[in-house]
Fold this protein.
Amino acid sequence: MDMASTLQLPARVEALSGLSAIPPEYVRPADERADLGDAFDVLARDDTGTAPRIPVVDISPFLLRADNEDRVVEAVRAAAADWGVMHIAGHGIPAEVMDRLRAAGAAFFALPIHAKEAYANDPAAGRLQGYGSRLAANASGQREWEDYLFHLVHPDALAEHALWPAHPPGYVAATREFGRRIRELASALLAILSAGLLGPGRGDALEKELTGAEGDDLRLQLKINYYPRCPQPELAVGVEAHTDVSALSFVLHNGVPGLQVRHAGRWVTARDEPGTIIVHVGDALEILSNGRYTSVLHRGLVNRDAVRVSWVVFCEPPPDAVLLRPLPDLVTPDHAPRFTPRTFRQHLDRKLFNKAAAACIGHDEEQHQQNEE
């Protein structure tokens, strides 16, 4: 064993941001590096007037039951089918609620590392919630350039409140209020997406499938991603390319670019659309829609001179109470089911933890890999 492999690595990526070169365990494989770079530089290259743009959809007519709500349904349906991601405007969440959330999360990550360690998680012991850093648990064996804080925010009765930071003092109130608002927005978007699949009068279909016969509530998991300055952004990623396991994911950020989504064979860098919330379609919704909605492949770039922070709320079905499978109306002789039934826990175990889950293994695997390429 060589001497380098015996050295203890810094526990947090934040501690590496002052180096002149990144450690080798953060260097991405050669086949990824051609498309990497400082997110500001990549966005500037894209900003030529010809690069595609992630759709922006104003859903306020639907929320207000205005005459043109059908246009909202079609715009959301088209974005979910073609892109799997969109910027949502007119979502009804006040700017001050989002600003308080951003301020609370930024203040937590401004604390010294030793203060944040009071909330440290332990993935090796199965404790995923809390403060942590993404260690190598992927095909490449490389690490990602991020620290994070992760915990459940809804339903409140299931939350482990001891993992919610006591500092800054406003963290709990700001996070709880934002979680409540996102839960309402999730119902509205699921109604829009249901109508887009099944037509008027069927707006409750997706949420019913996601909550089950007993009406078990959706789970909302918050992950605050902290991407420190990176001396070699052309070699690293904040988060490697993946799809979300959730039904929907809601994203706020601090205005620093970094999100990229895969569309039509190329990486498209998200622009800042002030006042909007980014919404991703996740695996659970792709399964229920029998592939009509796309679980978007996406990743995070990093920056040489700017810290990026994003707040992601994953909207998930209860882990064992429902069976994820295509809606019966979407399975016909001409449209066979593309996904085998599985609980959310089975899907999560197979995808994130590489556990054997025989009930999840089926003919959808090859097709889903093709969808991600």
About this structure: The domain at 24-321 is CATH 2.60.120.330 (Jelly Rolls). The chain has one domain: 24-321.
